[in-house]
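Reminder to self: tokens first, then the designed residues, so the page reads top to bottom the way the pipeline ran.
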């Protein structure tokens, strides 16, 4: 979802109007609420639930239908969300579908969303009213959070030539703004743990598949990295940065995994925060930290979007496509490994992570 901020920012620059979004998944709404250029957020629990059983889908359809047909950017790699748009009465000629504008050779996912945002639906392209701000109708739908090709639609109108400079001024990459309330909440959270004046290093061990069905090394979990290697990295980070607190990130189900690694590492100044990090607090924490070591994950992209330097371990995903990329230009060191000639995170040794971290320029406390 972080990658799609590239699309939202360009649409907002084109039309000077908020972009409304329909989305599903736990990340989207708390991540995007209050972000620049974001308007109304309509959340769906699931796009797979039959329409007649889904109050969320029916509510989204009523809201979109009440607004009337308007330019819509659809960013789902499947047809799963199309029924929502069809029921809302949004004709095909008002829709820019990402599947009709695939990735170009060597293109990063954030660049694809930026390019998509500059395409105008056929229904409004070249019409006399298309350049008028009051002609825009920002609608958005993103029914599958967490993957860069998941569904999203947003609305707008054709871009006038006078706004070319404004569009060019939108810095490529992803961006997240940390609000004042987020900072206040984080300050209170850090004070409660005695960390207000302590520089912070963050570690993201798990991912959304880590604890699925209670198993760590599922065939589908290609972002698994052994606990013993994480423990070795933690010990070396502690040696290099004796004054920093080391905070283990994650969601509630990852708390136990973090604890196991913490026991193996057996170091002081280590804090397991996986049971107490709602998304807004996580983003504020990333904006404050000196640096992050992580697997390829949502927090990796969020870190880059708030300017946090990071080392990121990749498994089967392509770094050329999904390398974290933020507008602040934070340093990102990418590590890849191979097993039996195939991309595999298990091919990354602890010493490689430690070497990358040792050469990373950490951020001073902000």
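Designed residues (366 positions):
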């Amino acid at each position: 979802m972080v990658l799609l901020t590239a699309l939202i920012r360009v649409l907002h620059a084109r039309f000077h109007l908020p972009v409304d979004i329909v989305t599903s998944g736990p990340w989207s709404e708390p991540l995007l609420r209050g972000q620049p250029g974001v308007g109304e957020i309509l959340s769906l629990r699931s796009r797979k639930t039959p329409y007649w059983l889904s109050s969320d889908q029916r509510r989204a359809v009523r809201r979109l239908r009440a607004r009337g047909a308007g330019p819509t950017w659809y960013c789902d790699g499947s047809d799963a969300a199309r029924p929502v748009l069809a029921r809302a009465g949004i004709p095909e000629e008002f829709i820019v579908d990402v599947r009709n504008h695939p990735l170009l050779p060597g293109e990063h996912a954030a660049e694809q969303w930026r390019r998509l945002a500059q395409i105008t639906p056929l229904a409004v392209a070249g019409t006399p009213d298309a350049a008028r701000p009051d002609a825009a109708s920002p609608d958005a739908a993103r029914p599958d959070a967490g993957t860069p090709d998941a569904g999203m639609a947003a609305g707008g109108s054709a871009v006038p030539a006078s706004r070319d400079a404004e569009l060019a001024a939108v810095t490529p990459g992803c961006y997240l703004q940390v609000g004042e309330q987020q900072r206040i909440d984080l300050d209170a959270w850090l004070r409660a743990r005695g960390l207000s004046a302590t520089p912070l290093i963050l570690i993201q061990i798990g991912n959304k598949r880590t604890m699925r069905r209670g198993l760590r090394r599922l065939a589908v979990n290609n972002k698994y990295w052994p606990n013993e290697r994480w423990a070795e990295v933690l010990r070396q980070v502690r040696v290099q940065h004796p004054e920093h607190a080391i905070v283990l990130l994650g969601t509630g189900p990852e708390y136990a995994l973090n604890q196991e690694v913490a026991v193996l590492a057996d170091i002081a100044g280590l804090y397991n925060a996986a049971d107490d990090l709602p998304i807004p607090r996580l983003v504020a924490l990333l904006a404050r930290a000196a640096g992050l070591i992580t697997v390829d994950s949502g927090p990796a992209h969020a870190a880059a979007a708030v300017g946090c330097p990071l080392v990121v371990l990749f498994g089967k995903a392509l770094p050329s496509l999904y390398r974290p990329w933020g507008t602040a230009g934070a340093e990102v060191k990418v590590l890849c490994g191979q097993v039996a000639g195939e991309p595999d995170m298990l091919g990354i040794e602890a010493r490689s992570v430690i070497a990358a971290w040792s050469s990373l320029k950490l951020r001073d406390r902000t």
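DSSP finds 13 helices and twelve strands in the chain.
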